[in-house]
Amino acid sequence: MVIAITGLPGSGKSWFAKKLSEKLNATYFNSDQVRNNAFSKKDYSPQGKIQVYKKMYNLAQEALKTNNTVVLDATFHKQSTRDSLKAHFPEVEIKWIKVVANETLIIDRLSKKRQDSDADYNVYQQIKNEEEDLREEHLTLESTNENINQMIALALKHLDYEQA
Q1: Which residues does 63 contact at the CB level (< 8 Å), separation at least 6?
Q2: Which of 149, 138, 153 has the alpha carbon at shortest distance from 98?
């Protein structure tokens, strides 16, 4: 299974995706980490973003050979990107989870240095303006600074995850 975590910069998607992947013992890939580790130059152009997503999909494909669950963490804000994920994994179940947050909280989060992401409020606004509705069946979770356990519980229910 591929679990695609989508959301705007500062929404809390990476924090959530990391925690979810730990809970599921899933392999985790983050688009910012892929960009930082796989490419010598950070390229945020449309073509550069396509290359990052392709690399992330290829890494996920390899990981699925040894782990039956992969968590992908990226904005996935364009339908073309979501379609390319589905095309890359035609035989694999894909579950979508969208993480949202109050804009005041997003502004606060984006004002602080984050480990892998270069996104600031201007990048957030640009991606928000470009964002296309998520047409795929999905769960939407609202992130606060206090509700990670509730988000994980709702996600596990959405994923039909049975805890031992």
Answers
A1: 27, 29, 70
A2: 138
